[in-house]
Specification:
Cytochrome p450, 2 domains, two-stranded antiparallel sheet, 11 helices, monooxygenase, iron ion binding
Amino acid sequence: MRVKLNSQMEPHSKFVEATTRMLYIIHRRLMSPIYSKEFIWKMTSLYKEQLNLVKFINEFINSIIEKRRNELISNTEKSHSKRLCLLDILLHSEMDGKPLTNEDIRGEVNTFMFAGHETSGGTLSFVMYLLAINPEAQNQLLDEIINANISFDTPLNTRKLNSLPFLDGVIKESLRIFPIFPLVPKKCIEDVKIGDVILPAETFIGITYGINHVDEKYFKNPNIFDPTRWFDEISNKDRNPYVYQPFSVGLRNCIGQKFALMELKTAIIKMILKFNVIMDVSGYNPNLIVAFSMKPTNGIPLKFIPRN
C-alpha cells in the first residue's frame, strides 16, 4: 500500500494492537454458541470493544486511502508504473463505470491486511522453527536452492519457484504439523447424516483438519517432520483428498492460496540463502493457542546467523 507500518520495530503500535485484539474477539465469538445470538452478543463488553476497534481501524485505513488519493491527484508521484501496489490498483479501478468508494477499497485492504498478514507470517514462523530443529532438512533445502542456480539476487518467477520439490515438501509439512487454521467453520447446505446424528441444513459446524494431519491412519510417523513424504505419489494419491486441507476446500476455500504459496517460497528462499537458522534457547516447546489462527503464546526464539 506504499505505507510502512513498522510493525516489527513497533510491535506495540496502536494499529498492531488493534488488529491483534480484533482477531481475538472474532475467534471468541466464533467459538461461543452463546455469542452466536446477535442480541446476546450486543450486550457484551466484547461487542462494545469491537465497535471501538472497528472505528479505529477504519479511520486508520481511510487516512491512508485519502493520502494516496491526494498524491495521485496532485501528481506528486508517478502513477503510471508498470507495477502498481494494491492501493493504486484499487484507486484506479471502477465498478459499473464508477470509481470504487472508500468503503469498497477499505474492505479489500482489510482483507489483505487480516487474511494476508496473519496467515503468511504465522506459517513462515513455523517453517523457520521446523528448519531450525531439523538442520538436515535445512541443509537439504539450501542445497536444492543452490543447485537450481538461485542466488539471493536472482529474480524469482513462477517457473523457478515451482521447480523446487523439497521446498514444496517443507511448506506442506509445516502446514500439516502446524496448520494455521486447525479448525475451519462450514455451513451445511443440506441435511447431513453422520452415524445416528442428523445435522440440519444451515447448521454451522467446525471441521478440525488439524486432527487428521497427525493421524497415523493417514500419515506414517505423523509427528516426524519429513518433507520427502510428499514425494510418494502412490500413497498421496490413495489418501482421501479431504484429509489434508490447510487452505480449506469447497466454495469457501482460501482465495489467496496460490499467492500465499508464492509469497512463502520467496521469503523462505531469501532467508535460507542469507541465514543459518537455529534455536536461540534449548528445550523450547511452542505453547499453542488458536486465536483466529494458531500461534505460540511464548513466541519462537530463533537465531539467524549470517552465512559466509
